[in-house]
Each structure stands twice: as structure tokens, then as C-alpha cells.
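Justification of computing resources. Each target in the renewal requires a structure prediction run like the one illustrated here; the chain below, 143 residues long, is used simply to show the kind of job we budget for.
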Amino acid sequence: MKRTEKEEKLRRVVKQVLKCDVTQSRPLGAVSLPPADCLLSTLCLDAACPDLPAYRAALRNLSSLLKPGGYLVLVDALKSSFYMVGEQRFSSLSLDREAIEAAVREAGYTIEQFEVISQSYPPTMANNEGIFSLVAQKLSSSA
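Resulting C-alpha cells:
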């Protein structure tokens, strides 16, 4: 499939693009949607959260968008305190596997899968110790 065909297909199937602020108890603001079956967060939670309490709160806030039994899929850098985009340096919350797993469980999920991929970058670009992917299911009794 050519790039233009892919773009056209994407424009047909994407109905809406929404701003999501995980630091807010209502991440979508005034927008109301039915609870989702699955949420995907890729390379952003550690940048949005300045500390572990904020990370825990963000996971709880995301939970409000999921139906009970729904899935949260996280992909993020492991133990990364910064990353570069061009010449711009951005801070990142450095978390290890144990802290991530504990925060996810505390937010009302059961972890079904946690994998670490040995992906590193030149030390001038980022200081992560790999990339992780996590699949967790929202417990029925959580928010």
C-alpha cells in the first residue's frame, strides 16, 4: 500500500483526535466517551509525570477511561531520566520495573505481561536501560 493510500484510509477510519491530560482526574476534560476496551500509552507517561506520586495518579486517571476488565498497554523507557529531540533535552521520570509494577497494581490492574527489550540509545540521546512493554487488565472493582 502506498503512503497516500495509507493516509486516505487513516483519514476515513479516524473519527476524532482528542487531547488527553493524564495529570487530570478527567483526562479528556469535558469530553464524555463510553469506557474503552483498551488504552495504549507509548513513550509519554514518564515524560508527563514529574514524580512517582504523579505517575500513580496518572495510572488511576487513565483507569477512569477503561471499562472493568479492559486492558492498559504501556510501552516506555526503563530507568530513563532524560531524552533528546533534536537539540532539545527533556526530563523523564526514571522508574525501574519494580516501581512500575507496584504503581500499576496500586492503580487497580493485574499485570498479565511485562517484557523488557534491550533497546538503548547513544548516551547523548537518552540514558534508558531498555524499553518495556506491559499489558495489564483493569480489575472489576477499580474506578
